[in-house]
Amino acid sequence: MLPKGGSKIDVDAANSLDVPQDELKAVLGEVACDIHGCFVLKSSKDDLFRDVVIDMLRGSGPNGKLRKAEILEAARRKLGRDVPNNEYIKVSFLLV
């Protein structure tokens, strides 16, 4: 039960718990992608490096670990360019 005066966000969050899991996942799937049960915001079409990292995370298994060198090499192959350190840090920070 929500306290009186609960914000719209609080009410919406509480109401979302009453939705069947498959319905909730379908709605989340419109804006987020599932990585081993955790949802992260989908990439925009101009953020291709993020797609590379998300694909690697999906393929690594739930307890998988990725090394920076592996990520940068995969990006170099898929994107055809080197990824600057600031771009790597930005994507890494947003996916943590």
UniProtKB/TrEMBL annotation:
What superkingdom does the record give? Eukaryota
**Which keywords belong to this entry?**
DNA-directed RNA polymerase, Transcription
Checking InterPro entries in the record gives:
RNA_pol_III_Rpc5
Q: GO CC annotation: what is one?
A: RNA polymerase III complex
GO BP annotation list:
tRNA transcription by RNA polymerase III
UniProt keyword annotation of Transcription present: yes
Q: What is this protein called?
A: DNA-directed RNA polymerase III subunit RPC5-like
Instruction: State the organism named in the record.
Output: Trifolium medium
Q: What is the lineage of its organism?
A: Eukaryota, Viridiplantae, Streptophyta, Embryophyta, Tracheophyta
